[in-house]
Amino acid sequence: MKIAVLGTGGGARAHIAKLAEHGHEVHVGTRDPQGTLARTEPDMMGNPPFGQWLAGHPGIELHTFADAAAAGELVINGIDGHNAVAALSAVEAELAGKTLIDYAVPYIYDPDIEHPWPTPWGVNPVLDPCDSDSLGEQIQRALPATKVVKAFVTQEQATVVDPRAIGGGDHTMFVAGQDADAKRQVTDLLTSYGWTDVLDLGGIVASRGMEMYAHMHGAIGIALGFGTHFGIKVVR
Amino acid sequence: MKIAVLGTGGGARAHIAKLAEHGHEVHVGTRDPQGTLARTEPDMMGNPPFGQWLAGHPGIELHTFADAAAAGELVINGIDGHNAVAALSAVEAELAGKTLIDYAVPYIYDPDIEHPWPTPWGVNPVLDPCDSDSLGEQIQRALPATKVVKAFVTQEQATVVDPRAIGGGDHTMFVAGQDADAKRQVTDLLTSYGWTDVLDLGGIVASRGMEMYAHMHGAIGIALGFGTHFGIKVVR
What's the structural domain count of chain B? Predict the structure, then answer.
C-alpha cells in the first residue's frame, strides 16, 4: 500500500521504518526537503539529523508535504501539534477523500506559564486546544473532505509500532473518528503492527480525552523512570 | 481507625459502607445534617435519599463537615469538585495535620458551552481548573497544614473499594501528593480494599493528569457500554 508519513521526527521515523519493513511504499513529507536534508544538528528532541537517519533506510524518498500527501492512499500526520492545522490545510486538496491518522498532542511551550515539574525537555507543557476542543477536531473541521482518525496518541510511537515490546502486547490502543470505514482501515494497520486490543472510542470528539491523557502519560513515565516503556490496558 | 468521609453522594457511600464493613469508626460529614436527612428525593445522580440509605447502614452517624473532620484521623473528601475548596477551607482548623484524600473531578456544567456527546447526566462537562492547575493543587494551597493526597480519581468509587470486581483486581490505582507518609497511609488503605498495584505519580501537581483523565474515562465507559465496570492497568 502507498502510505504517506508527514513529518520527520522520532514518532514519524518509527512508522516510516516499520511500514517499509512491512513492504509498504512509504512517502515521507516535510516542509522543505532540501532544508531537512541539509541539517546536521539533532532536532529539539535529540533525534539525529533526518538525512543521516535516511541514509540508513534505503528506498525511502523525501518529498514536500503536498507531494507525499498526493502519493499516499493512507496518510499519517506526524507534524507537531502546534503547526499541524496550518500545514495540513495547505495540502487540503491532496488529502481529500483519504484517511488521515493524527497522533499529535497539541502541547505549547509558553515561557509565561510556570512549569512545575521537569520533563525530558525541561518544562511541563500545557495543551492548546484543551478540554472544550481538541486538535483532532480542529483538523477534522479544517479538512471536511478528509476522514480524520485520532489514534496512536496514548503512548510512544516506538511502541505503537511494536506493541509486543510491552507486557507481551496485552494492552489497549484507542481510535476515534467520524468514519467507520476509516477506523477499520486504521485498526487493520494496528493489527499488522501486532495490536490485539483496539478500542473504538466513538466520534472525533473523543480526541479530547486522548490528547488530555498526555499529562497522565507523562506522570506515569516519570514515576516508572525514563526509558521504561509502558502502555495501558483497559481491564474489563 | 477513625475515618471521616465528607459528602453523601454515591462515591462517598461506597467508601462509608466499605470502611464500616472493615471495622473502622466512620464519621460522615455534610453541610446541613438535618436538611440531608429530611430529603426524600433522589440526588442529581439518581442515588436514593441519604436518610433512606443510612437506615440500611446502622452505626453510622451524620455530622456537620466540621464535626466529622474533627473526629477523623484520616479524611476522605467526597464533596463535589465545584464546592470542595470553599467547603474544606471552612474546616481548615479541623483538617490541620491530617491526611486528606481527594478524588473529585472539577467538572463544571456550563450551559453556554456546547456539549457534543451525551453522558448519563446529559452533557459532556468541562473541567475548571484544568491543564495549568488542578483541584488537588487548589485544595493543597488552601490547606497548607493538611497533607492532601489525590487518589481514587481514575475510576468509579464502587470499584475503588472493590478492585477484584474487575479482571481479578489486576489493574492500577494512582496516588499523588507532597507527603510520602500520607501517601503510604493511603496506599495501606488501598491495600486493605484489595489493591495490589498502587503507583505513586509524585507531587500533587500530578493531580492535573489524574483529573484530566476523566474525559478518557468517560469515553471508554461510553465505548464499553454504560454499566460495564473497568479499570486501567499500567502494563510495563
Answer: 1
Q: How far apart are CA B107 and CA B124, in angstroms?
A: 9
Q: Report the SS3 class of residue B131.
A: coil
Residue among A174, A130, A169, A134 at smallest CA distance from A153: A174
| B29: β partners | B6, B63
Q: What are phi and psi of A156, to 5 degrees?
A: -60, 140
Residue numbers in A near B132 (CB within 8 A): 113, 126
User: What's the CA gap between B88 and B6, in Å, rounded?
Assistant: 9
Q: Which residue in chain A has the smallest CA separation from B153?
A: A216
Structure letter (DSSP) for residue A103: -
Contacts of A111 (CB under 8 A, 6+ apart): none
| Alpha carbons A124 and A32: distance in angstroms, whole number | 29
Task: Answer whether B79's CB lies under 8 Å from B6's CB.
Answer: yes
In a domain, residue A135? The reply is: yes
For residue B126, give the amino acid letter.
Answer: V
Helices (H) and strands (E) in chain B, counts: 11, 11
| Secondary structure element (H or E) that encloses residue B99, with its range | strand B99-102
What range defines the domain where residue A60 resides?
Answer: 2-224
Domain membership flag for residue A35? yes
The stretch A40-45 carries a mean pLDDT of 86
The count of other CB atoms within 10 Å of the CB of residue A188 is 12
Selecting from B130, B174, B231 the residue whose C-beta is nearest the C-beta of A131 gives B130
Which of A63-83 are b and which e, b meaning 16 or more Cβ less than 10 Å from the residue's Cβ?
bbbebbbbbbebbbbbbbbee
Which is nearest to B178 in space by CA: A126, A117, A112? Answer: A117
Task: Spell out which residues of chain A touch residue B130, defining contact as CB-CB under 8 Å.
Answer: 130-131
pLDDT per residue as tens digits for the range A99-143? 999 999 998 866 666 555 555 444 468 899 999 899 999 999 999
In the predicted model, what is the mean pLDDT of residues B159-184? 97
pLDDT of residue B123: 46
Minimal Cβ distance to B236: which of A131, A167, A214: A167
A26: in domain: yes
Tell me how far apart the alpha carbons of residues A34 and A62 are, in angstroms, rounded to a whole number.
9
**Residue A233 in domain:** no
Q: What is the CATH number of the domain that holds B152?
A: 3.40.50.720
Residue type, B228: T
Q: How far is A104 from chain B (nearest CA, A)?
A: 16
C-alpha B167/C-alpha B172 separation (Å) is 11
SS (H, E, C) B36-80: HHHCCCCCCCCCCCHHHHHHCCCCCEEEEHHHHHHHCCEEEECCC
Rg of chain B taking only CA atoms, in angstroms: 17
A29 min Cα distance to partner chain B (Å)? 31
Q: Where are the beta strands (DSSP E) in A46-166?
A: 61-64, 74-77, 99-102, 107-108, 126-127, 147-151
This prediction's pTM: 0.94
